[in-house]
Design brief:
Layout: E1 2-4, E2 8-13, E3 16-21, E4 27-30, H1 32-44, H2 47-58, H3 62-78, E5 82-84
Antiparallel strand pairs: 1-5, 2-3, 3-4
Length: 95
C-alpha cells in the first residue's frame, strides 16, 4: 500500500499541491497532474489502481498513465516523502 511517510503534511488540490517534510523542513511542490496522481495513490493504495483512475481522469492510454503515476511515486520515494508500507518499516529499536 502506497502512503506518505510520517511527518509529511500534504496540501493537495485539483490545481496543484505541496507536501511539507518535517524531517527536512522543505516543501515539495506538485503540478496539477502530479497532485492528482498523489490523490489517486492515496485513495487507491497501489500504483495499478491509481493508474486506472489517472487514465480515466485524463483520457490517457493505460501505459502512459502507469508511467506518469510511477514517475511521481518514484520521485517522492527518492525524496523520502512516500513509499509502500513494507518500505516504511524501521530497523533497530526505539526508546
Amino acid at each position: 500500500m502506497w502512503q506518505l511517510r510520517d511527518g509529511t503534511h500534504p496540501v493537495l488540490t485539483n490545481e496543484g499541491g505541496a507536501i511539507l517534510s518535517e524531517r527536512t523542513g522543505r516543501w515539495t511542490y506538485l503540478t496539477p497532474t502530479a497532485s492528482a496522481a498523489v490523490l489517486f495513490l492515496l485513495a487507491g493504495g497501489d500504483e495499478d489502481q491509481a493508474a486506472g483512475q489517472y487514465a480515466a481522469a485524463y483520457a490517457l492510454p493505460r501505459h502512459q498513465a502507469a508511467a506518469d503515476v510511477r514517475a511521481v511515486s518514484d520521485e517522492l520515494a527518492a525524496q523520502g516523502i512516500a513509499g509502500t508500507a513494507a518500505a516504511r518499516r524501521r530497523r533497530g529499536w526505539r526508546r
